[in-house]
Design a protein that fits this description.
The protein is an alpha/beta fold. The chain has eleven helices and 21 strands. The chain starts with 6 loop residues before the first strand and ends in a 9-residue tail after the last helix. The structure holds thymidine-5'-diphosphate and magnesium ion.
């Protein structure tokens, strides 16, 4: 038998070490390292399979009754999977998942395990959504009880709200600590696989990351869905941050109404509208997963005395913004060294796609020059460090979306083939794009 290796783990942050420390080397807490059960006994060898003999069929998918959610999941819920649904408190996680249970319960067995709300509170919420349905409900927070119930009841779909309320009495730390949420997620994953239950696990994230949440669990679960937008706006964006069964580029938009969340099938209509003649706004045609999305980008450029002017981005990667600002000053004659630059994407949407670069740049130039972007115009294209515009993928689909929304023209990298009635204003460089998109643009000092 191999010698059992003793391991110590911090009950606060999960750090593990081969020896004991009084102070955790990772999080600095005192007296939190505890001995973990040694796992070192030689295990018997297992028979192996041959890959050619493995049967793999694209399994059944369970429609959730929420078309937008199905698309983000990659075509419905996969049985025997663990889906983490993360988001700030109040964003609508419980509401969305209750609608899902109401719809699935029409022809499958469902169970809601609630640690946050009482069954009566859930009932009231269900009534707002259109009435209670045949959903099993269990108020429980103790992990052993939860797992045992799942194994005994074997619902086809289960929602656990939330992972932060679950605790295992075997672990010393408080519910919601990293050690507890990790234990809960890994036990639930095992139950999902062994009992064939599709589990939605709710996880709260706070802006400052104070609560141990989805971040600590991402590697454990099959799928991570993130709910964004905040409770002060009525629009919410759902996207997959990780998906073992589908793409991570899909995005769904919901509107919070008095009777629950309603999917928005045409988000471009909502987010892609700009007011003609408005300074500091440009419409991007970005690609989100399988579909193009028009988004209004807003920019504000304000003089500053700061030695390090501010570059504040909401919905755009700050590094990307810094790069675009640098390219604008170096290659397009738009000096921003003495100005704060703020950029915002409409609707609380976040864009990661480089195809949105050009519209971000145009919004900034418009704000800097005090001149609006031409009306009924969208833009797409990646800005290279050299000031050149790189072609964007799937340009036809982007142009189609622009035409569908009634735009007249699109500024795009040269070589983008025109499509239908929409005019394509081809530009080789960022400087050229600025010239064709912004009327009052004059050469610097001229
Ligand atoms: P909730 O689903 O409880 O958020 P989470 O589970 O992510 O913390 O969402 C709560 C918010 O949504 C709350 O502010 C009330 C609002 N709401 C509606 O506007 N309409 C509704 O039909 C429901 C059920 C909630
Ligand atoms: Mg909730």
């Amino acid at each position: 038998m191999a010698k059992a290796a003793t391991k110590f783990a911090c009950t606060d942050c999960g750090y593990s070490a081969g020896r004991w420390f009084g102070k955790c080397p990772s999080c600095g807490a005192f007296g939190t390292l505890v001995e973990e059960e040694a796992a070192g006994a030689a295990a018997p060898s297992k028979p192996t399979l041959r890959l050619v003999d493995v049967k793999a069929e694209e399994g059944e998918r369970i429609p959730t009754g929420v078309a937008e959610l199905d698309r983000v999941l990659g075509g419905g819920l996969v049985p025997a999977s663990l889906v983490l649904v993360g988001g700030e408190p109040g964003v609508g996680k419980s509401t969305l998942l209750l609608s899902v249970l109401r719809s699935i319960s029409a022809d499958r067995t469902t169970l809601l395990i609630t640690g946050e709300e009482s069954p009566a509170q859930v009932k009231l919420r269900a009534e707002r959504l259109g009435g209670a349905a045949d959903i099993g409900i269990l108020p429980e927070t103790e992990l052993d009880g939860v797992c045992a119930t799942l194994e005994a009841v074997r619902p086809e779909v289960c929602v656990i709200d939330s992972v932060q309320t679950l605790y295992s009495s075997e672990l010393g730390s408080a519910p919601g600590s990293v050690v507890q949420v990790r234990e809960a997620a890994s036990r639930l994953l095992r139950v999902a696989k062994e009992s064939g239950i599709a589990i939605f696990l709710v996880g709260h994230v706070t802006k400052d990351g104070a609560v141990a949440g989805p971040r600590a669990l991402e590697h454990l679960v099959d799928t991570v869905l993130q709910f964004e937008g905040d409770r002060y706006h009525e629009h919410r964006v759902l996207r997959a941050a990780k998906n073992r069964f589908g793409s991570t580029n899909e995005l769904a938009v919901f509107e919070m109404t008095g009777t629950g969340l309603v999917g928005v099938p045409e988000p471009s209509e909502l987010f892609g509208r700009s007011v003609d003649g408005e300074v500091g706004a440009a419409v991007a045609c970005a690609l989100e997963g399988s579909r193009p999305l028009l988004l209004e980008i807003q920019a504000l450029v304000a003089p500053t005395d700061l030695a390090m002017p501010r570059r504040v981005a909401t919905g755009v990667d700050p590094k990307r913004l810094a790069m675009i600002v640098a390219v604008l000053s170096r290659h397009a004659g738009v000096a921003l060294g003495q100005a704060d630059v703020f950029v915002n994407v409409a609707g609380g949407v976040r864009i990661d796609e480089p195809g949105a670069d050009l519209a971000i740049a145009l919004a900034i130039v418009s704000a800097a020059k005090g001149a609006p972007v031409k009306p009924k115009l969208a833009a797409f294209g990646e800005v290279a460090l050299t000031g050149r515009l790189r072609p964007a993928v799937q340009s036809e689909r982007r142009l189609e979306e622009c035409a569908k929304l009634g735009l007249a023209a699109a500024v795009a990298p040269s070589g983008t083939p025109a499509r239908g009635k929409l005019r394509v204003l081809e530009a080789e460089t960022l400087r050229q794009a600025v010239r064709s998109a912004i009327d009052a643009e004059r050469p610097e000092g001229g």
